[in-house]
Amino acid sequence: MKLYHATTPKKASHYRHSKRIIAPVRGFTTLLAAMAWACKVGRTVIMEFDAQNPHKLPDHHNAFGIAWWNDGDVTEWTCVFSAEKDA
């Protein structure tokens, strides 16, 4: 399952240096849902990753997608949006 994870530039830099996003990694089923969440909580970077062992979250959902968490570190991802670079 492809998920979209909202984060901060500082955490994104940490992910690059450590080569992992430490579990549990939360994400949304759509880019739009992740962007809506990012606006709500003040995050400006969206990462896309393939969840290997996702579990549906009981909350965090919004009108644009469903929230899940991945049980396990993520070692491969793509930055699909950064307000610092793309906006």
Keywords for this entry:
alpha+beta; three-stranded antiparallel sheet; single chain; 6 strands; 3 helices; 32% strand; globular; 29% helix; 87 residues
Overall pLDDT level? 95
Whole-number radius of gyration? 12 Å
The proportion of strand residues reads 25-35%
Discrete helix count: 3
Query: How many strands, what sense, and barrel or not for the largest sheet?
Result: 3 strands, antiparallel
Q: Give the helix level as a range of percent.
A: 25-40%
Q: Largest sheet, order of strands side by side?
A: 1-3-6
Query: Multimeric state of these chains?
Result: single chain
Element order: H for helix, E for strand: EHEHEEEEH
Between the first and last Cα atoms, what is the distance in angstroms?
27 Å
State the secondary-structure class: alpha+beta
What is the tally of beta strands? Answer: 6
Report on the architecture of this protein.
Strands 1-3-6 form a 3-stranded antiparallel beta sheet. A 3-stranded antiparallel beta sheet has the order 2-5-4. It contains 3 helices and 6 strands; from the N terminus they run E-H-E-H-E-E-E-E-H. The mean pLDDT is 95. Helix content is 29%, strand content 32%. By secondary structure, the chain is α+β, with helices and mostly antiparallel strands.
Topology readout:
Elements: E1 2-7, H1 9-18, E2 25-28, H2 31-41, E3 45-50, E4 54-56, E5 67-70, E6 78-82, H3 83-86
Antiparallel strand pairs: 1-3, 2-5, 3-6, 4-5
Short description:
The protein has 87 residues and is α+β, with helices and mostly antiparallel strands.
